[in-house]
Automatic annotation (TrEMBL):
Keyword Electron transport on entry: yes
UniProt xrefs under InterPro entries: AOX, AOX_sf
Transmembrane segments: 207-226
Cofactor(s), names only, from the UniProt record: Fe cation
Record's keyword terms, sorted: Electron transport, Iron, Membrane, Metal-binding, Oxidoreductase, Respiratory chain, Transmembrane, Transmembrane helix, Transport
Superkingdom classification of source: Eukaryota
Example of a GO cellular component annotation carried by this entry: mitochondrion
Places the protein is found: Membrane
UniProt keyword Oxidoreductase present: yes
Protein name, as recorded: Ubiquinol oxidase (non-electrogenic)
Entry similarity comment: Belongs to the alternative oxidase family.
Record organism: Galdieria yellowstonensis
Broad class of the protein's primary localization: membrane
């Protein structure tokens, strides 16, 4: 039987709680209110440095990454001790690749969950999933951080191409730009949450994700150039996979996740006073989806549900590009519904006025 190591953290009310962590090590780790178990994003150079030219930012990044590379090599050679009591290793989260695959098969066995796609897209998707399964085996947080880094790229690609079309005067749709920006902003916050859980701690993961993201950006630009529905379809595949992965992660780590508090970045995103941007990528009326954010479990449920919203939006975008069924953001839809009501009211008044005039005219004729 596996030994259990207890470590404490702060719960949502600020009290100390015990969290049971499955691990073979006997070393107890104590977290208190003073030692936040999450990575403080404000300490990252990315947040502390003022906007600067590409050369100075690249130089700064190079120095930071060189330091990370040296540390990584040192740890691989055993010269530098690995600290497994830092996020994300200290949480002991689990994710079984086979169970994710089962989840995917189960979804695809139902008509409503299946993503119909062409063979090439499916092949690329399968290769990508196999690579992620291999590279991030038993490292779910790093896997999510990689996925969120890459998953933002399609929306940025779509915005770039839509801007280009607009600049060239080929085509214009401000609504699509707004929806894709809200989607990208949502994925950005998923990424920040994974960063606060330590998903970007390792040099190799950063190296892989950053380069894969730039490559993926251009692939999606090319897809969108060829056919927007092809690009949207591929994104639907990826977003549906994200739903499967987060669902399985929630199932496998439910008890532990429920005992951990939400990272600050998650609270500031999901519990903000103004959730205009959050509403803009939903498939609901504005203000109707206000998920709780009381624990890390809630945070992952919210992320999974966000991914589901992306799946629906990608489907709607495909219908738009294939059938011309226009896509509107929730606020624009609300505005359009209001205008329809105003128009109906106007028509009603106009009919009443026309009837009154015709009665007056007929009375005049009779008299
Ligand atoms: Fe995401
Ligand atoms: Fe996503």
């Amino acid at each position: 039987m596996e030994e259990k190591t207890k470590f404490t953290t702060t719960d949502t009310k600020g009290d100390s709680v015990f969290v049971e962590k499955q691990d073979s090590s006997k070393k107890p780790v104590w977290y208190s209110e003073d030692s936040d178990i999450y990575v403080d994003l404000t300490e990252s150079p990315n947040f502390q440095v003022k906007p600067a030219g590409a050369v100075s930012l690249a130089w700064l990044h190079f120095r930071k990454e060189l330091d990370g590379l040296v540390r990584s090599i040192g740890q691989s050679l055993g010269w530098i001790e690995r600290d497994e009591w830092t996020p994300p290793d200290c949480y002991g989260f689990r994710l079984d690749n086979d169970r994710v695959l089962e989840m995917q098969k189960q979804r695809e066995s139902e008509q409503s969950g299946r993503v119909s796609t062409n063979k090439l897209s499916r092949w690329i998707y399968d290769v990508l999933c196999s690579f992620i399964d291999f590279a991030y085996k038993d490292r779910p947080i790093e896997r999510f951080w990689f996925l969120e880094t890459v998953a933002r790229m399609p929306y940025f690609s779509y915005i770039s191409v839509l801007h280009l079309y607009e600049t060239l005067g080929w085509w214009r749709n401000g609504e699509l730009l707004k929806i894709h920006f809200a989607e990208e902003y949502n994925e950005f916050h998923h990424l920040l949450i994974m960063e606060s859980l330590g998903g970007s701690r390792k040099w190799l993961d950063r190296f892989l994700a950053e380069h894969a993201a730039v490559f993926y950006y251009w692939v999606l630009v090319l897809f969108f150039f060829l056919s927007p529905s092809l690009a949207y379809n591929f994104s639907e595949l990826i977003e549906a996979h994200a739903v499967d992965t987060y669902t399985e992660f929630l199932r496998a780590n439910e008890d532990l996740l429920k005992q951990l508090p939400p990272p600050k970045i998650a609270e500031s995103y999901y519990l903000a006073d103004n959730l205009y941007m959050f509403d803009e990528f939903q498939n609901h009326a504005p203000g109707t989806r206000r998920p709780p954010c009381d624990s890390l479990y809630d945070v992952f449920c919210n992320i999974r549900d966000d991914e589901m919203e992306h799946v629906k939006t990608m489907r709607a975008c495909q219908s738009y590009s294939k059938l011309g069924k226009i896509v509107l953001s929730p606020h624009a839809k609300l505005e359009a519904e209001k205008n329809i009501k105003i128009d109906e009211q106007k028509r009603k008044y106009w009919k009443q006025w026309a009837q009154r005039i015709s009665v007056q005219n007929s009375n005049k004729k009779n008299s």
